[in-house]
Amino acid sequence: MRELFEKGITFEEFVKESEENIAKRIKERYEKTVLDEDLIEKIKFKDEINILAFAESWCPDSQVNVPIVAKIASYNKNFKLRILKREGNEEHMKPYYIDGKAKIPTFVFMNKDFKEIGHWIERPEIVKELAKSGEGEWKRDYLKGKYDKNIIEEIVNILSR
């Protein structure tokens, strides 16, 4: 996993490689993401965590979640985020396939020795449940940030293990 991680690009490079309108959306999500003090405390003193994301900037789920994870990582200098495209890396994503498919974004959280401590795929649990139930407004609400707090809490819970 270390070699794969080292092939990844930074969040800044991910934004720079995105189309202008998408880059703007990603930057806006990053800027508006704020962690509550209690969540900051949970991750502030954690040791090195390497976060490998499989993502594509054209993907709405990546546009929502990659900047949120990047912002969370910014709260601790020991957290490093690298991003790889799904395309060309499907083989490495196989352990995380859902229904036989590579879903993005997929985040793999690893300790300093690159041993996995957790992973997070595509969307927060509440949004997955709403999508299954057929609730009509979930997608618009999700894209507008209604569930950002849920995403942050799920990611912080993985990071604070």
Automatic annotation (TrEMBL):
Under InterPro entries, the record lists: Thioredoxin-like_sf (IPR036249)
Q: Which domain of life is it from?
A: Bacteria
Give the matching Pfam families: Thioredoxin_9
What's the name of the protein?
Thioredoxin
